[in-house]
Amino acid sequence: MTEEIGLTAPPAPQLKLARKNWIVKFIVVGGAGAFLNTTVLYVLYRWLHMPLVAASALAVELAVMNNFLLHDRWTFAAHSRSIARFAKFNASSLGGLVVNVLAVWLLTHIEVHFLVANVAGIAAAFAVNFALSATWVWGS
C-alpha cells in the first residue's frame, strides 16, 4: 500500500523518526485547520446567523478539505494525487466531524461558549483522525 503513494518503508530507526515527523506535521496542519474551522464558524454563526450545528458542520468540512491538501502534499508527501485517497480521507474525517459537531452541540447546551466548545470538539477528534490517516488513508 505504501508503494501506491510512492512511499517506501524506511529502516526501523528511520521509521520511528518519520512517524514522529508525521505527528508534528499532522499537528501543524491540524492547527491551521482549527484556525480555519474556528474563523469560518464565527463568520457563519455570528455574522451570517446560520444555525450553530449547520455552521459547525460547514466549518469542519472546509477544514477537512484544507487539511487533506496539506497532508497529501506535506505531512505524508504523496507523490501522486488521488481522488480515492481524498474520498477515504473525507470518509475518515466524517467521524471527526460527528465528534466535533456533537461536542459543540452538547457543550453549548451546558452553557460552554461556542468557540471553547469548538476547540474541545477539534481536540476530541484529533486522535481518531490521525490514526485513520496514518493507517488507512495514506496506508503507512
Overview of this structure, please?
The protein is mainly α. The chain has one domain (about 10-135). About 80% of the residues lie in helices and about 0% in strands. The protein contains four helices and no strands. The chain has helices spanning about 10-45, 50-75, 85-110, 115-135. The longest helix is centred in the N-terminal third of the chain and has 36 residues, at about 10-45. The protein is elongated, with a radius of gyration of 16 Å. Residues about 1-5 have low confidence and may be disordered.
Q: How far apart are the termini?
A: 7 Å
Q: Which structural class should the secondary elements be placed in?
A: mainly alpha
Averaged pLDDT: 87
Helix content: over 70%
Extended strand count? 0
> How much strand?
under 5%
Report the major sheet.
none
- Helical run tally: 4
Radius of gyration: 16 Å
Domain unit count = 1
From the spread of the alpha carbons, the general shape counts as elongated
Low-confidence stretches: 1-5
Keyword list:
0% strand, elongated, 140 residues, mainly alpha, single chain, 79% helix
